[in-house]
Amino acid sequence: MTVGVALPLPVNQLYHYRVPPALVAAARVGCRVRVPLQNRTVVGVITEHGEPPDLNVTLRPIRAVLDKKPAVSASLLLLTRWIANYYVCAWGEVLRTALPSGHARHRRPKKERFLRPTSAFATAHGLKDVLEQLRGSKEKAIIRACLQYIAAGEPIPRKAQLLSEAAASSATARRLVAKGICEESEIEVLRRPDYGPLPSTPSRPPPFNKSQKAARTQLNAALEKQSFTTFLLHGVTGSGKTEVYLAALETTLRQNRSAIVLVPEISLTPQTVQRFRARFGDQIAVLHSRMSHGERYDAWRLLRSGQCTVAIGPRSAVLAPVAKLGLIVVDEEHDTSYKQYDPAPRYHARDVAVMRAKMSDAVCILGTATPSLESLYNARTGKYTLLSMKERVPVPGRRAALLPEIDLVDLRYARREQSFRGALSEQLRESIEARLKRQEQVILLQNRRGYAPIWECQSCGWLPECTDCSVTLTYHKAQTALRCHYCGQTRRLPSTCPDCAARDFDRLGTGTQRVQEELKEYFPHARVLRMDLDTTYRKDAHYTILDKFGRGEADILVGTQMVAKGLDFSRVTLVGVVSADVGMGLPDFRAEEHAAQLLMQVSGRAGRHTLRGEVLLQTRRPDHPIFAYVQQHDYIGFALALLEARDQLFYPPYGRMVNIEARGPQEKRTREIAMRWRDVATRQLPSQLKMLGPEPAFIARVKTKWRFHIMIKAPRVYPGLSDWLRQVQRDFGAVPSGYRIAISVDVIGSF
Ligand code: ADP
Ligand code: ZN
Ligand code: ZN
Fold it and tell me: 334: CA distance to ligand 3 center in Å?
């Protein structure tokens, strides 16, 4: 017998091995195997039985089969193969993502030894009899310890603990076993992170309002039919979307089917997990990157065995090993963290979720207050079914939780009239002061990317833009030129502003740290927390900071976009955006979409509860159309305007974009590799595709590696794209060692 094995190597092929007779029964499709490769051993997954393509080669034998039951189900094999095809990577690379700690490590369940009275003596009464007959004092001590636990109705602890409590040795334990009074056993224990106690009774759903009911009715109808449908659940922040997910989960579980809930990693807080556990208890298995390998392995196994039926986790949880899938929820579907940047597979978990639901006749819910333009487009063309929830859930003491008031602060005016040079305008400072007096809380967002080499007119907010690509130009010091990061168009930095004739250019934006320093100057007594990449690189730093703020141990939280996501603090009544233009300045055609999502999301943080919220947006371009929409809470209106512009330039969702990144230690060599890739591709470029670049990446050098990008634009429907990319890769051949080429299909924000 021979088997085809997918190995976690960036090579698009299966490896074939011979199965020794002793392993034939065990070597099932979907099982992990240890196999020789050149002079080492690797772990892969059996994906097929059968003959290799070339019958003349002598095959090497597999060394071991690591699973009793296939680790990857037939349906996950299909899904992972689709991902490998669509995102142009190796099947084995996708399977590595689907398994709890990669193929490579062979994890074992954790087992513990127990020493317990045999069934004949396992009652308090029986043990008392035993005590009278025993003579050894150590033996008696063990029995007494057991007796205490049994009398208290508690389980007897592990053997090691029991013996230490009784101050007895293993030899004594052996004597008890020999006498038939006790027995030893080895029991598998599960490593579960501690999420705190479960409530004794499950939480109950609140009585639904009209729009929640309408959403539930439609979802239930689709779930009952068990036919694939994707819903775009568009509900403003606080409209009760999570309750709708919970209702759909309940229907799914009642049908004896399972579910997956995807959330952005950053919003996978104990708060969120607790809400799901409070309703469904131990049916929930959490998968996230902060768990230990052992915990992840156990969560994976609970799902695989069907003991848990709901997987909740970030991106990679879309590959959770659940059987009989009925529902996938993608919360905050617009969130860009669903797209993996590195390493392969560079997949988009939302799009994979839709495909997985399709393959399983399941329902997929994409929930958000600010849909991505892709999903909005799909809802408008009928591919997705739109569910809308336009109002916040009323809270006790108030008839309806109102959306916050959003005001603009014109920084140009502040600068002229108040000869103001800092980050916080007078108006923003006054609002902060008022909150401090009332002991309410403030969130300040400064979404500056430290590396943005973008120049802006300080007096009118003018930003240089590419005439062809509608993205902001970036400044290249070496050439003292402005350059389009997509098409390479270059221009000199003008000496005076073309709009207002001022000679006052400066780099865009101020960092969060400077904002924090300014706060210290103005409000020396305020307690300020900062949340950005610098303060959160440690594992649990997010949670520590948010937890502190939630408990009221700080007055002001300053941070990057991290502060905008999914937070719910009842005492926050002011949200200030220090520079609402910054996000728009990125050299990315999605910059305005992301800016609008961010502004809407962060505005949703204010006044979630009984206190009415206020939002202040500081800007140099108050007449930018985005603000009128944001002030009206009309995200969709703005998104529709953006869609029209995308249509004209064939940007997604009207076309597709693929990014090819060459990366390596030497600038010249990396550029040459990118050029060669382009040359190979040009020779066979289908007329439907358009190729731009190579261009130096926006951040030209990351961790000592130089990066050059090629952009490929394809029609929205162009089934030959993956095959063509594979063909170019094959013709390109081996990449020199130390260098690499990364393909990102449906790329998002690659700088
Ligand atoms: P979203 O997920 O849209 O932000 P949530 O589901 O978190 O909204 O709901 C916001 C708050 O309102 C939560 O505290 C939730 O428990 C509560 N809530 C949701 N639906 C209702 C309802 N129908 N009646 C009362 N409270 C509700
Ligand atoms: Zn100007
Ligand atoms: Zn351009």
Answer: 25
Q: In testing the pocket of ligand 1, which one of 212, 213, 243, 633 has its CB within 8 Å of the most ligand atoms?
A: 243
Q: Give the model's confidence band at 693: pLDDT under 50 very low, under 70 low, under 90 confident, else very high.
A: confident
Query: Looking at the domain assignment, is residue 457 inside a domain?
Result: no
**Which residue intervals of 198-269 are DSSP H helices?**
210-225, 241-254
Shared domain for 139 and 75, answered yes or no, is no
Residue 149: inside a domain, yes or no? yes
Q: How far is the CA of 227 from the centre of ligand 3 (A)?
A: 44
Question: Where in the sequence is the domain holding 697, given as residue range(s)?
Answer: 655-745
Q: Are residues 215 and 338 in the same domain?
A: yes
CB of 367 sitting under 6 A from ligand 1: no
Same domain as 579, residue 432 = yes
pLDDT (mean) for 44-70 = 87
For residue 7, which of 42, 35, 39, 44 has the smallest C-alpha distance? 44
Q: Are residues 66 and 137 in the same domain?
A: no
236 and 368 inside one domain = yes
- Which numbered atom of ligand 1 lies nearest the CA of 244? 6
DSSP label of 621? -
**Which ranges constitute the DSSP H helices of 100-226?**
124-133, 137-151, 159-166, 170-178, 210-225
- Is 97 domain-assigned? yes
CA of 742 to the centre of ligand 1 (A): 42
Dump pLDDT digits (tens) for 285-297: 998 877 777 888 8
639 lies in the same domain as 663: no
- As given in the structure block, the two tokens for residue 133 are 């007959």
CA distance 250 to 241: 14
> How many domains are there within the chain?
5
Q: What is the pLDDT of residue 401?
A: 56
Q: Is the pLDDT of residue 451 over 50?
A: no
CA 470 to ligand 3 centroid distance, Å: 7
pLDDT tier at 44, thresholds 50, 70, 90 = very high
pTM: 0.85
Distance CA 575, CA 201 (A): 37
Q: In the structure, what pLDDT confidence band is assigned to residue 723 with cuts at 50, 70 and 90?
A: very high
The CA distance from 696 to 679, in Å, is 17
For residue 465, the SS3 value is: strand
The helix (run of H) or strand (run of E) holding residue 556 is strand 556-559
Pocket lining: 572 vs ligand 1, CB cutoff 6 Å: no
CB under 5 Å of ion ligand 2: residues: 457, 460, 462, 497, 499-500, 502
